[in-house]
Structures are given as structure tokens and as C-alpha cells.
Amino acid sequence: MYPNLLAPLLIALAIGLAALLLVAVRQPVSRRLAFRQLARRRTEAALVISGSVLGTAIIVGALVVGDTLNFSVRQEAYRTLGPVDERIVAPPGPAGRAVAERLGELAGSPDIDGVLSAQVTQAAAVSRPGGRPVAEPRTLAWQMDFAEASRFGRAGGDSGLGGANPKPGHVVVNEPLARSLRVGVGQQVTFYLFGTPQTFRVDRVVPEQGLAGVGLGGRLNRDAFLPPGTLDSAARAAGTEARSVTFVSNRGGVESGDALTDEVTADIRRNLALVAQQAPIETPKHTVLREAKVTGDTLGALFLMIGSFSIIAGALLLVNIFVMLGEERKSQLGMLRAVGMKRSRLVGSFTLEGAAYALLSALPGVAIGVAIGWGVAVVAAEIFRGWAVGGSSLQIVFAVTPTSILNGAAMGLLIAFVAIFVTTVRISRFNIIAAIRDLPPGSGRKPRRRLLVISSTLALLCALAAVPALARSQAEQTYLMPALAVAFATPAMLRVMPGRTAITVAAGAVLAWTLLAPVVRPRIFDTPSMAVYVIQGSLAAFSAVVLVSENQKVLVRPLRRLLERPSESGLAARLAVAYPLAKRFRTGATLVMYTLIVLVLVLLTEISGILNASVNTVVSDATAGYSLRLDFNAQVARDRLLADLRSGPSAGQISAVTPLLNATGRATDPGHRTSSPLDTAVVGVPDGAITGIAFGERLRGLGNDAAVWRALASHPQYVVLDAFFGSTGGPSGDYFDPGDTLALTDPLTGRTVQKTIAGVLKNGMVFYPGTGAGSTVYPVVVGETGMRELFGTQAQNASALVRTRPGVSPDTLATQLQGEQLSSSLVATPIASDVRRQFDSSTAFFRLMQGFLALGLLVGVTGLGVVMVRAVRERRRTIGILRALGFKARTVQRSFLWESAFIAVEGIVLGSLLGVLTTWLMYRNSAAFAGLEGGFPIEWTSISVLAAATFAASLLATLGPARRAAAIRPALAVRISE
């Protein structure tokens, strides 16, 4: 992922490594000090490295997820297209034959590797493995010359289809059809060609590759290749003709040929001349490859966003460790400075030590990251199967690119280097005498005048920049600019009020703004950018922790009775809270790690709860009383199928049938997110047939849902859209409203008309095609008059909505109807079951993200363990003195465990409260939750389990250091400093 970042990242990393190498060569004393610490503290070095490993692993894992999804979508180009770059589907009859003849003349073009003409029809197939019938209502029956097919595409390339043509009475099927029918070579299959059954024996089963997996836009194509002339004779017997399809292969390979799409498309259009209006030119490979990049980038960015919180936690772990190292070695550092060591060399020593940790963690981090990406791919494959439409799901294939490996490793190292360097510069600023004598740092100093002037100027600039950001609802700036203005104003506040008061006011203001920004500017979430969520979560966590850290003494007042108790437990409790209160920075850094991760985990848990609570409402909105959506072959079904539904064998189970007109169109994006035309499934609703499907938004003047449907029938310029129209993945937003316009085009004639949005559906599930498409297709619902005006005779009854009678099972009726209307290739989709299945898959996807984020929780728990390990070493002499004064070993152990529990509980409670509150504010104000009207449940059970697991893991991480502290011998500890 992100090949454009590779060069800048590698250059930045090379500069950083060169600087480190220069320090190591020119400062031998700094180098020896750094590497001596590595050699002496191997256990602690291993803990630091383990914390650093996870940061790199999470970055690499997120990038590998993007690679996998990108590669998986691109694989469709190999499976369903192969050498096919352009596809021209002509109508039956003389016009189709004329198109094929004209396109045949392009075979000599230098930009084209081949032109192949074929005939196709939609069919149904039945087999009888083991004597029981197995049906497949959606089959593509092809008639093409295998010799020409084998030569199609680049010379020496594999077109996917070759060998001899099947003999009369035989058929070649591809693997998806063979799996669906459970047949192999030599078994018989009956195909309904134009409604008439014909039986064939399977001659070969060919892999789903290139021409053997080709279709008319489907993601999964079940293909049957018939003997020459079979389709023509079946069409003549039915008094019709098969559709003519011409495939064009651009010069080059499967992906490289896409670069010539524009030139070849222009050549095809010129060659067809006036006939071009009867045969739209499709560029399926260009669409697939474009969507591969969008899908990979979007979902990769989503996982990178989720992983960002873990990355921040990893960076804080490094900061915390080096702050503790500085505290532990304060006397040693003071002596080094006293004997003449420059501060720059002290910085060099610490930076080299930290860089060594980061470099040692890089390779394990990459390996673990690849493993994480593989695990996500395995789970995602099951989830995408749940999102399948018409049995056609995205087939997840694990993939990893060197670009992602290098990007991930470089990002991990650079983040570590920056965190270490900034921390080292900060801890190198100390008073030499105070450091030698191990005195606490001075406090209460007012900010210097120069700092005050600079910070006040920056605060003013940020405040000014916040005004246009707020006016335009610019997401990232709306959060950042006011928060930065408050942060930069803090030094000025310290001049006029006590330090704790100033910091409390500043942190409280940032926290309040972070939580209230969606209320003030609810459109800030109308962006596909993931950065806004990282900024929101980080600001909430950091400001809340600063607020708590500055007021810890107030928060522990309820524990005063326990702390003042003259008992062993009272002593342990006082020791447990003494160090967190005294060492506010390190306590705050650990708290942020916990708060950040728990916040996002609770947020994901709450979103899953909202989905589960809303499923019944969404099902009701999606069905509006309808139970089934039927899709069928209009060329075969004609009016017979609708008549059978009303008076046939299953009519007693059906209360109403609403036929829908269908056509394929293209539309502009009313949300102006892209300038490329969007593929649309245009659906014509018979006048007055639908009144109950609900709208989330309506055009002003249309008082209720029925009024929108009446307006659609009486005004051809009106259309109705689904809320997800034009969505490319990621968080959805409110990009268009009733009254906005779009241009709707008939790709066959090229005619374009302007349409006005009359309403936005709460749920448009019933209008999505019931058979899977290879690319994203969005429904546009129009009235019957508007449909006929634009598409004419192309608009055919190819689908219908069905209401069942009370007590009838939609799933059972769907199976029954598919059997009765097999010759019409009918596919019956139970709407409620489909909606629930997709909700289950969405919930599973959130669980997948929670699992990915749980790695960040591991960073937090590891961080607490590392802090406690170093705390034991730092307090060694103090523990020895306490033990010499009569403190029991179990009191020391208990104090360490309670200290860990104190920090963990604060982090868990803060994260849980912020997670619930943030989700509630998003639910109330973000368009992403539009249509989810099941209420806002608090997932007490899930949150309690999360809190308990986190608390238990924290205690477990501290148990080892606590035992080591209890086992310290007083005499040795008092005499030995390390």
C-alpha cells in the first residue's frame, strides 16, 4: 500500500540512520554508554523490544490487509476477464451482427491483441447427482469458437479457454457451475435455453480463469460453453435471437493492457460510427482495477486508523520507558555532566540506546505484522461471504507486497526514533547539582517571556484558523484548531492563575470541545477521511487523562479511610497511591495507553450493539411489508411469470405482486465525490404500486412517504436514491439532500436527462439487484413514466416484489418459486433474511476490528508491566529501607499489585466512559447512523467482560515484578544501588 510514500519514508529513514551512525562514530563515549546499558539489562531490554515490536507489527498488519483486499479485487480481472479489456453487448438481430462485423475489422490494430465474437443467453441448469435434482437458476450459456478463443489475447498468453469445440450433445462447464450443480466429466446436465430444456453430457470442467470465467458484469459467473450452432437453433425454435457479445483485448498483459483503454475505446467508437448507439462500450477491467485500488486503500486505511491508537500507545510506551531510565540514572547523568560531558552527547547516548531497541524490534515486528495480516484475511474471507449478493462474494486471497513491508518497517522505526529523540531532549534538561543529590525537580516556575510570546502568538493564529474551519465544518481542523489554541494559551494562563488550576481549565476545555464538536457542527463526520476519528479519540483520551492526573488527590479522597487505616492493608494502599500521585507524567502516559485503547474498544462494542438493537427496525424499513425480491430472465419470462405468480400453484401463499421495470444506466454523483459516472441499476416503480417504503429525508413540500411516491409517479424528473448512493466504503456521511440534482444517462443511446432527488430512502435494500455484480451498482428509483421516457423498450420487467400471506415462510416460498420458475432463471431473495445476514456480517466485521485493536491493549498491558519492572529497580533501596523498618514482604507485594490495579481501573473507567459518551454523541449527530433507530443500548455485559479481562491481564503483568519486589533482601538493597 501507498507506493507514493515509499520514497519519502526511505529518504527520511536513511537520514535518521545516517545521523545515528554519525553519532556512533564521532561520539565513542556515548556509544559505549548506550551499548553497555543494552548488555547489562537484557531482561528489561527484551521487555522494551517487545513493546516496540507491537507498534511496527500493527502498522505492517494494517498495510498487509490493504494489500490483500487490493489483490483480491484485482484477481477478479484474472478470473472473470483475463485478456478481456472491453466488452460490447449488442442487441439480438441484424444490429448485433452488424456490430460484430464492424468490430472484427479492429483485429489488425497495433493497440489490440484480439477481437472475439460470441453469443450468449441467460439460462437455468439442472443436474441429478445421486438421483436428487440440483438446480442453478443463473447460468450463462455461451456459444463461441474454441480455436478463436485460444488465440484471443497476447501471443503466448493463456486466454483461459482452448482445445476442441464440444461435440453435439456435449458441453464444457467452468468450475463454479460444476460446483453448484455437483457434476463432473461424463455426467448429464439439463439447460433451459430460451425456456426449453436440452440435456448435455459434460465433456470438460475448466478452471475459472479468463474466458472460462467471463460474464456480463457478475462477480461470479457460472458458464456453460455449448457446441457450435446450439444456441442459434434454440433461439430460432423460440422465435428470438441470442445476444451478441464482442470482446476486445488490448495490447499487453492482464493488467498492463488497461493503460490503453481510453485509446482503444475511442477506436471502437469510431469504427462503430452510427451503430455505436445500439451497442454501449463497457470497460469492465478498468472498473475492476479502479475499484481494487479504492477497496484496498479504504479498508487498509480503516485498519490503519484502528491501529493508530495502538501505535500511539506504543510510542507512549517508549516515552515512558525513557523517562523512567532518565529518573533511574539521574545521579549518574548528573555526575557525567559535572565532569564535562555535553548535553548533546547525553542526548546522543540515550538516542543510540533507544534506536538500538527500535532496530532490534523491526524484523520481528514485520514478521508478526504479516502474520496479523494473514489472520485478518482468513477472518475477512468468512465475513465477505456473509455480504455476498446472489452467491457472488469477493474471494479473499492473501497477498503482501514489498512496498507495504518497507513502508511499515520505515514508519515503525521513524515513529520510534522521533519519540525517543524528543523524550531524550526533554529528560536531558536538568539541574546538575539537584541530579547528583537526587533532589526532586523544582516546580512553580513561571513560563519564560520568550515562550509566553511565542505560545500566545500561536494560540491567536490557531483561534483565527478555527473560524473558517468551523464555518465550513472541516473535520480535522474543527477538532484540532480550537484544541491547539487552548493548549498554546496555557502558558499565558499560568501567569495569572495557579498551575493546577490553569492546566485543569485547559484540559477541561479541550475535553468539552472534543465531545461537543459533533453537536455544534454535526456535518464534520460527512467525510471519508479516517484521520478525524484518530484526532477525536486522541484528544478525548489525552485531555481526560491530563484532567485526572492534575486532580488525582481529589479523586482518591473517597479512599481516605482505607489510606489512613493503621493496618497492613492501609500501609499497602498508601504505598500504592503514593508513586502514581508523585510521578504524574509516567502515570499519565500509562493511563493514556489504557484510555485510548479501551475507548475505541468500547466504541466498537457500542456500535455493534446499536446494529443489533436496530436490526428489527431496519428489516421493517427494508421490507415495508414485502417478503421476497424476485429477479428473472425477462426474455423468457415475459408476462407469463407474473401471471403464474398471481394464479399459479403458489398463488395461495402470495397476497400481492409488484412488478418492477429494470434498465442499466449511468449517473453523476450528486455528492460530488467523483467526476466519474457511477454504474446504476435504474428501477421503475409502477404508478401507485408502492406507498409504504419509508424515507429518511423528503423534498420540502412532500409531507409524508406516500406523497413522495405520488410525486415520483406524476413528475418524471424526480428520482429516489438510497442513502449509500455513490459510497466507496469507509464511514458514510450526508453528501446529498432532497432537491439536489444528478444526470442520468442511457448508455445505449447516450441520452442524458437531469433528475431531481425527491427523497432519500431509509433503506433501499429491495431495489438492489438480487444477483451479484462485479462492480458497485447503485439503484436509482424512478416512476414508470420517467423510466419509459428515457429507456423506451429497453426497460423490461425483470424483477418483482412479493408480499406473502400470514403464516407463510418466505424462505420456504423462495425455494418453491425457484423450482417452479426454473426455466425463467428466477432467483428469489428473502428480504428479511438477507438484511439480517448482512447485519450479522457487519457485526462480525466490528469484532474483527476489535480483535485487531486488542493488540493495542496488549501494548498497554505490556507497558504497565515494563513500568512496574523498572519501578522495582528504581525503588530498590526504598524497598530495602521499608523492609528493614519492619514492612512485611506481602505488604510490599500487595502495594505493587494495588498500584497496578489503581492505574488500570482509572484507565478502564476513563476509556469506558469516554467510549460510551463518544458513541452516543456520534449516534445522535452523525449521518453514519441514519436509519438505525433501535435506540442506544449500553452493552453492560460486553463492557464488563472487556474491563474484567483488561484488569486481570494488568494484574498478571504486575505479578512477576511484585514478587521480585517482595523478595528483595533489605541488607543487600540498602548497600547496593543497582
Task: Detail the topology: elements first, then pairings.
Elements: H1 3-26, H2 28-40, H3 42-80, E1 86-90, H4 94-104, E2 112-127, E3 134-143, H5 146-151, E4 170-174, H6 175-181, E5 188-193, E6 196-206, E7 223-225, H7 230-237, E8 243-250, H8 261-272, E9 281-282, H9 284-328, H10 330-338, H11 343-386, H12 402-427, H13 432-436, H14 449-472, H15 475-496, H16 499-520, H17 531-550, H18 552-555, H19 560-563, H20 568-582, H21 584-623, E10 628-631, H22 634-637, H23 640-647, E11 654-667, E12 678-685, E13 695-698, H24 705-714, E14 718-722, E15 741-745, E16 752-761, E17 778-783, H25 784-791, E18 796-804, H26 810-820, E19 827-830, H27 831-874, H28 876-884, H29 889-925, H30 940-966, H31 970-975
Which features does this protein show?
978 residues, six-stranded mixed barrel, 19 strands, elongated
Assess the beta-strand content as a share of residues: 5-15%
Query: What average pLDDT do the residues reach?
Result: 85
Strand arrangement in the largest pleated sheet? 2-3-7-4-6-5
What shape does the CA trace take?
A: elongated
In total, how many beta strands? 19
| Biggest sheet record | 6 strands, mixed, barrel
Query: Any idea what the radius of gyration is?
Result: 34 Å
Distance separating the two termini: 47 Å
- Low-pLDDT segments, ≥5 res: none
The helix-and-strand class reads alpha+beta
Residues in helix, %: 55-70%
Our count of helices gives 31
Tell me about this structure.
With 978 residues, the protein is of the alpha+beta class. A six-stranded mixed beta barrel has the order 2-3-7-4-6-5. The chain has a six-stranded mixed beta barrel with strand order 11-12-17-14-16-15. The radius of gyration is 34 Å and the shape is elongated. The relative contact order is 0.11.
